[in-house]
From TrEMBL:
Pfam families found in the cross-reference section: DUF1427
Name assigned to this protein: DUF1427 family protein
Database matches in InterPro entries: DUF1427, XapX_domain
Protein species of origin: Bradyrhizobium elkanii
Region Disordered: start-end pairs: 76-97
Superkingdom classification of source: Bacteria
Phylogenetic classification of the source organism: Bacteria, Pseudomonadati, Pseudomonadota, Alphaproteobacteria, Hyphomicrobiales
Amino acid sequence: MKIYALSLGAGLLVGVIYSLLNVRSPAPPLVALVGLLGILAGEQIVPVARQLLAGHGLASAWQQAKCAPHMFGMLPGRQSDQSRNAAALEEGLEKHS
């Protein structure tokens, strides 16, 4: 239940900020996408700050907090061998069907 109250509070805060910026919800697509990017980036501030305070460099902190996979998902060319093998297996099964 606590997570729902926190989510509602965050939504109210964003609504107040939108009102102050004179943007109506649902926001125009570009404004909404920039806002989502801000949310994703903002989520990374605390984990990276913790790593920095632990004495790690910025690049190391970024990597240890797993920021890139969180913000960008699985990027092309960065798939693990296991996921590549599973995709190849699925393709093979589809061809034989």
